[in-house]
Design goal:
Four copies of one chain form a homotetramer.
Chain A (H helix, E strand, L loop, with lengths): L2 H11 L2 H6 L2 E6 L2 E6 L14 H17 L8 E10 L7 E10 L4 E12 L2 E14 L1
Antiparallel strand pairs in A: 1-2, 2-4, 3-6, 4-5, 5-6
Chain lengths: ~140, ~140, ~140, ~140
Amino acid sequence: MDAIEARIQDSFAKQSLMKTFGAEVVSVAEGEVVLKSPILPLALQHTGHGHAALSFALGDTAAGFSALTVMPEGAEVVTAEIKINLLAPAAGDYLIARGHVIKPGRRLVVVGATVTAFDGDRQRDVAVLQGSMMAV
Amino acid sequence: MDAIEARIQDSFAKQSLMKTFGAEVVSVAEGEVVLKSPILPLALQHTGHGHAALSFALGDTAAGFSALTVMPEGAEVVTAEIKINLLAPAAGDYLIARGHVIKPGRRLVVVGATVTAFDGDRQRDVAVLQGSMMAV
Amino acid sequence: MDAIEARIQDSFAKQSLMKTFGAEVVSVAEGEVVLKSPILPLALQHTGHGHAALSFALGDTAAGFSALTVMPEGAEVVTAEIKINLLAPAAGDYLIARGHVIKPGRRLVVVGATVTAFDGDRQRDVAVLQGSMMAV
Amino acid sequence: MDAIEARIQDSFAKQSLMKTFGAEVVSVAEGEVVLKSPILPLALQHTGHGHAALSFALGDTAAGFSALTVMPEGAEVVTAEIKINLLAPAAGDYLIARGHVIKPGRRLVVVGATVTAFDGDRQRDVAVLQGSMMAV
């Protein structure tokens, strides 16, 4: 496991919310991080689908980690702001969130993420996010 | 308990994520709904503070409920899109989320929310949200 | 004219787009700046109303100036990101944009703005904005 | 010129702001529309670069047109909400705005846009937008 992935795994392990959701890190590359999560019964909204905040949590975290891959070692990032457009109900076997860097920067990293639901052999995007991560 | 509050409590009870976070409905008025939540050990981010997605969940849900108070009976709303600016770490005894209607509409209701952390006798805003709720 | 207002007027004078739109500074206070603009025939969208970008320009600029009022002397700000929700067509005699500071900061100032159309003795909000201004 | 492109050109011709900025339609395809614009002396901000509202206007309009390409004939769209992250100063010979459909829908079309500055043989992205267009 290389240095970048070790930093992501370390940061991920500190996020109790990710454990609560049953999420895991699927892959780490420079500028792109992929997470996977079930849609647990504890994370639903009133429609019976995954809560908007579940899709948000996964997209935001994947995006934040993607920013971390382009920061100097030892840096940490927090979300300055992020916006989510919901595209479809979060339903199916599991969710995949892909976070990516749109524009690196010393103080602010502009990021995006897409959250996709997988159901058997079908998949569809359930949310897209665009935001900025701040070095702290 | 009047009709609007009954609808909110009913919708709230269906959101397992709110129960997971230990959140409760504090007050319901036309165009404004207030939620309260602890910052549970299961909802943290890597910095040890409440996860951005916790503030998002509370603000988004309070805002969605505020939209519901101006919709016709029997209507349901889901989040079309919402944006959050994080202002300070989510730390303290508990969080209060106030959701309010900015502009009612038949199809889209524009909403806002503020999430505030209370710590002893101190309080500070930790997030502001602006978004739109869609009737479904 | 005090120092803050002089800085705003100086910055405003450098923005040729504000002159193109016929906009002017109405008032400057710490944390709040108000602009006024006609809806000129050169600034319309396909519906015959003021273009979404006109409301954006006024709201963004008012918000940016409000951030400038809380920055150290000599600082300059640019928009890092901003989001606009359109509430109603921009029509009437003129527009008023009120920008305000939500949270000051050394590097990022979180801001909001409301754009209101005035038509005879009627007025209605046409847009709300939420964003962040970055010191440069 | 096919039907879709004719509708775009017709809508574009009604937008006086696009003419003010000297913008033109470069290409129209289903789900993607490209605009081009100079950075005229009348469209600057205080830093001497293109105003954030110029990038916004081009990105928003390109995104709105991309939504129009997936709507039934006779439909019209207006911006419900849109968010812009500014990536770099808008400087150079001209700007290209590419709007695209992220998710079609009967009532709401989720869209994105990228605005790129071209300067001699160099190019760089100056803004990204994510928003929703509403059928009216």
